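Render this sequence as a predicted structure.
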Amino acid sequence: MTEVVSYGKLFRDSLKGSKVKLVGLAATAGTFVVTSASAVDLNASVGPILDSMIELIPTIINLIVAIVPAIIIMAVVGFIVTFFDRVLGMLKI
């Protein structure tokens, strides 16, 4: 005999420990707030990291713009080769 399982019951069962997880997350977030408030100068450490990431964005965009046409050309060539291969396969040459 098959047992009918309710997805709602499974979802509720998976959330049983979520209150404990939420309390732990809130405690961790509170610790981060206290440590960041006691930091002398947070901008001096985060600023250079953000600047270097901002400098990388145009390079990444240029890489994507350079690669996309090659991928499109390879897809078109692959389609044409596969098409002719199937046509010749039907002709049994």
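Summary. Residues 61 and 67 are 10 Å apart (CA to CA). The two ends are 57 Å apart (CA to CA).
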